[in-house]
Amino acid sequence: MSKLIKTDICVIGAGSGGLSVAAGAVQMGAKVVLVEKGKMGGDCLNTGCVPSKALLAAGHAAENARKASRFGISTGPVSVNFDQAIDHVHSVISGIAPHDSVERFEELGCDVIQAEGKFTAPDTLVAGDSTIKAKRFVIATGSRAAVPPIPGLDAVPYFTNENIFENRVCPEHLIVIGGGPIGLEMAQAHQQLGAKVTIIEMMSILPKDDADMVSVVRDNIKSSGITLYEGSKTKEVQSNGDNVRVIIEHDGIEITLEGSHLLLATGRKPNVENLGLEQAGVEYERTGIIVDERLRSSNRKIFAIGDVTGGLQFTHMAGYDAGIVIRNALFKLPAKVNYNAVPWVTYTQPELAQAGMTETAARAKYGDSIRVVRWDYAENDRARAEAETTGFIKVVTTAKGRILGAGIVGRQAGELIGLWSFAISQKMKIGAIAGMIAPYPTIGELSKRVAGAWYTPSLFSEKTRKIVRFLLKLG
C-alpha cells in the first residue's frame, strides 16, 4: 500500500539547489521530504563541476611541470598516468559525497526518498511507495547534456559530461563538438594530459563573454596545439572501425576529421519530463519551467530553481535560488531574484571570469556614455614573479563611476571576480575599490590598479596641475 506523508516542504532533486533548500528548511524547523531518483549531489558533484575541475587540476599540473624550465628547473619529459588522473577525480568526488549523502540529510531531519517523483495533483507527489502531500514543493531536477540531431550520431559511441569521467584511457585524438565552457575545459584538460584534441564550434567560442577576453583564451587554445574550427557546421558522424569520423563544413569547404573518441558539449537540456507537470498545473517550455521573480511556477505553491528553469546554469545560481525560495516559502517574504551581479568562470588556462555587464551589453544599454578601463597582468609584479603575465582586467562603469560589469582573463581570475560581483550587487562606485588597501605583491592588486586607472585622465590633467600650482603658491 502507498504510504501517505504530510509535510511542509517537498524538494524534488538532490543536486546543489535542492540540497540547499532541504538543509536550510529543515534546520529552520520545517518538515522536509527530499526526493531523488539518482545520485545524491546531482550533476555538479558526480558529473559536472567537481570532476571537471579535478581533471583540469591534473592537466594543469602536467602543463606547469612542462613549463618549469621558465624558472631554471628541469623536470625531464613529463609522464602522465591517465588512469591515476581519473583516480584523483573519483577520490575528490568520494571526499565530498558524505556531505551530500542520504545519511547526512536524514541526520539533519529530512525524510529522504530514493525514487522517481511524479505529480498526480497540484498538491500531491508520488515517489516509490509514498504519496506526499506538501504545503510547498520545490522542483530542483536540474539539467542534462543536450544531444544535437547530427546525422549518424546514433550509430557511434560518444561521451558527454555524464560519462567521460568513467573513461580511463587517454584518447589518442579527442574530437569535441561544442566550444562553450564545458567543451573548452575538457578539451584543454585532455590535451594537457596527452591527447590530440580538435574542437568544432558552430558559432564562436564562449559567446556570452567579453570578446577581447575570449580572444586571449582562443590564442592560448590554438598555441597549445589544439585545433579549433569556429563557424563550422557538423554535417555527419560516421563509424570507421574503432575510430569516429566527423564531417564538417568550414568556410564553405567540407572537411573530414578522424578521431579515436568523440565528446558532445553542445549545451544543456532541463529535466522536465516524467514529472507530471501537467497534473500539477505547472507551465513549462522546451527551455524549462516558467517562473516569476519569486521563482514561483504557475502553481503558486510550487517553486522551481536552478537549471530546470532554463536560466543561468551554474551551481552557485542554484544555491542563490535556494535562498530566495526559503525566504518566500518559510518566511512569507516577497524575495525576488536579481541576476545583475552574477559571476561565472571558465577554468581554462588562462581562466576567464565575468560579473555583471560585458562592454558590449553596457554599450547597448547606455551608449557611449560608459567608461571602460583595463589593466594588464604584465603590469602586476606578482604576475611577473610567477611568469604568468598573460591577460588583463576590464571594468565597465557609468559616466559617474557606478560599476556595471567586470571581466578578468588570466591567472586566478575566478578568485578575483568575487570582489567585483559584490561591488556590482551593492551598486558601488569604482572609487571604493580604488581606495582599498591591497596587499603587495598579489594578483589581487589588479583590482585596485584598474580602479585607480579610472581616475588617471582627471587626476593628471592640465586642470589638476593648475589647481596644484595655485594651492602651492598659497604657501
From TrEMBL:
InterPro entries: FAD/NAD-bd_sf, FAD/NAD-binding_dom, FAD/NAD-linked_Rdtase_dimer_sf, Pyr_nuc-diS_OxRdtase, Pyr_nucl-diS_OxRdtase_dimer, Pyr_OxRdtase_I_AS. Residues 342-446 form the Pyridine nucleotide-disulphide oxidoreductase dimerisation domain. Residues 8-320 form the FAD/NAD(P)-binding domain. Keywords: Disulfide bond, FAD, Flavoprotein, NADP, Oxidoreductase, Redox-active center. Its cofactor is FAD. Belongs to the class-I pyridine nucleotide-disulfide oxidoreductase family. This is Dihydrolipoamide dehydrogenase. The lineage of its organism: Bacteria, Pseudomonadati, Pseudomonadota, Alphaproteobacteria, Rhodospirillales.
